[in-house]
Amino acid sequence: MIIVAIKSFIWIISITAIIHVVAGYSLWRLLGLSFNKKLVIALVSLGGIFLPDIVFPITLQMLIPKTPEILGLALSYFIIGFPFLFIPGLLLSSHFETSDFLSSCSLVSPSKRFWKVYFLKFLQLMIPFSLIQFLWIFHNFSLPALWEIELLPNYLFAEFNTFYSFAPFYKKIFIIAPILITIAILYYKFFLPSKTQHFTHEEFNKTNRFYIPGITIFSAWFISSVIFPAVYWGIYIFGQWKNVDWLKVTDCWMFSFQIALCVSVISLIAGISAISLRKVKLAVSVTILCIIYSIGNIAVAISGIFLFSNFDFLSGFRESIVPMLFSLCVMYVPLAVVLLLFLKSRINRNIFDAAQLFIEKKSTRLRYVGIPILWPGIIIALLAILNFAGKDLDTSILLVPPGKSFLPVRLNLLLHYADFPSLAAIVLIYIFVIIITVLLIYTLAKTLIKYGLLKN
Amino acid sequence: MDFLKIENLNFGYESCPLIFTDLNCEVNDASFIHLNGISGSGKTTLFKIIAGFINASYNKLIISDIHIEREMKPFDRNIAMVFQRSALWQHLSVNTNIKLAWNKKIISRDILNSWIDHLNINRFKNKNCSKLSAGEQQRVEILRAVSSGKKILLLDEPFAFQDKLNLENLIKVIEEYRKITGGVVVFSTHSTDAKEYFTIQETVDI
């Protein structure tokens, strides 16, 4: 156990550092882009984050069967972990940017740029996302299992599967807690905005040459994570069309869509309730979100099993979809609340104040002002949660009801039984759905910009 | 007549606890009241307290002989306001913005149309507000406020983007509105021109 833990930390810390350096470098190179261009890049990147984690590694394994496990796992971690930092970084760089921050990017010495700008001014905004990326690697068991490398997450998952004991997950929480506390202390000690220094204004260099390294890194990542699987499975299915088990594929899509839709709707109802209550604060919601991610998907799923196995009045639901819905909601309700509270914080309060002054009926206010302004953001949150819940293997793997097939779990099984034509069909449909989702989100984001809810 | 009377108003934000401490003021003979104060002195906050968007403690708040109770909802306070930062409903057309606020019983269609002509709003009245320039948006916002026919009009820095001709027209419209409603106009502005154009005026320093 100790050796596995040490090995895991070396892995996790090394890969986290690599992702930070590469994502940080490309972000720094892209800082001068206009917000619209950043938005397009961020939305295109969503394609990578919405694809199930397993798609890149299985494509790699299919194309190069002799890929060394260590390289395969490192690449998989990188491809999936990169957008956790890249997307929020790109958007936050516009949301929070100030003239002194931008101009400080043109300081002459590269080392100063890195330490004084990136670390102090930018990382302070990125700490929550770095934390989520770190926790994702810490909890993810499917990638090391797929590459057959024994790390802490899959070691503990195997221990749980063998002994059906909750102890491994308590161990995990005790291991992660001191690390999180240390990160929090370091953050408050060194990275708070008040602790960082300011620089003099200088002309910010906006030549095209400046962006090329950033665009290259982004393109390389996007080609590997989305284009490569799409092209590979597209070519593959061309000759295997007749061998696809369409009944299985349709069943799997239908069930996954129903579950993801239920989770999204429940999460949104919670989110809308939160934004209508003045007392729910964004900072508190982010803290709750971080706590849930610290506990991890599997631990949440185990708690679901525990809850629906040990209480008589709930045990009747054990074999139904309720425990699965419950656990997915625990994961995604805080995310929906955070997304909607963030949206609310961006709205010009005067718009609603004016509605209160000039429009007497609440229903008219809602019809003409409240709903039209909020719906694009609500639909974006719905689409995001729909995609995240629909690809969540870790939370669902232990809770799928008998006789049902949930998409990420089904992908694993198809890989296990070597039913590659059906796997290819699912992946291609997934990529098609993601393209439509991203286009929808882009259109809605444009509407938000028009209403002045997103910085333009 | 009490045009404006404030007694013992106290208010502070968490970050700035002492914005108003026992603020008192009384204006008995002016229907155009200029609220004067340096930037950050709390003019916008006072407007928001009067309009009912911020809760503050006070003994008495009377404007245009209307006693404003703390519990009163913003709509019931008989107040229209032009905000410093645009509060137009950007997703709606100019026409819809005005129609939603328009009180037909007080402001007749003819008067409203004459104001629309006067403020040169006719040529873009079917456009979405998000497509207007800052000056055009400001004129629409003022028209929306006056067309509501409320007795009290609060103007928070309303003339920042107007040229001289538009400014004169705006002031004519506001004066006509005041004659129709018989109410009070409270405004804050740094534009010297605007201060000079209003005929009856009292300045309150905060």
Describe this structure in words.
The complex is a heterodimer of chains A (456) and B (206). Chain A has 456 residues and is mostly helical. Chain A contains 20 helices and no strands. In chain A, helix 10 crosses helix 20. Chain A starts with a helix and ends in a 6-residue tail after the last helix. In chain A, 39% of the residues are buried. About 4% of the residues of chain A have low confidence. Chain B is α/β, with parallel strands linked by helices and 206 residues long. Chain B has one domain: Rossmann fold. Helices cover 32% and strands 22% of the residues of chain B. Chain B has a 5-stranded parallel beta sheet with strand order 6-7-8-3-9, with helices on both faces. A 4-stranded antiparallel beta sheet of chain B has the order 2-1-4-5, with no helix packed on it. Classes of the chains: A mainly alpha (456), B alpha/beta (206). The interface between A and B is medium-sized, with 20 and 26 residues.
Mean pLDDT score of chain B: 84
Total number of distinct structural domains of chain B: 1
Return residue spans of chain A where pLDDT drops below 50 for at least 5 consecutive residues: 193-208
Number of domains of chain A: 2
Helix-strand layout with pairing:
The complex is a heterodimer of chains A (456) and B (206).
Chain A: H1 2-30, H2 35-50, H3 55-63, H4 69-95, H5 99-104, H6 110-139, H7 142-146, H8 152-163, H9 167-191, H10 212-240, H11 246-276, H12 282-295, H13 297-310, H14 312-315, H15 322-346, H16 349-358, H17 362-390, H18 393-396, H19 407-416, H20 420-450
Helix pairs in contact in A: 1-4, 1-6, 1-10, 2-4, 2-10, 2-20, 3-4, 3-10, 4-6, 6-9, 6-12, 8-9, 10-20, 11-15, 11-17, 11-20, 12-15, 13-15, 15-17, 16-17, 17-20, 19-20
Chain B: E1 4-11, E2 20-27, E3 32-36, H1 43-51, E4 60-63, E5 66-67, E6 79-82, H2 94-101, H3 109-118, H4 134-147, E7 152-156, H5 164-181, E8 184-188, H6 192-197, E9 202-205
Parallel strand pairs in B: 3-8, 3-9, 6-7, 7-8
Antiparallel strand pairs in B: 1-2, 1-4, 4-5
Helix pairs in contact in B: 2-4, 4-5
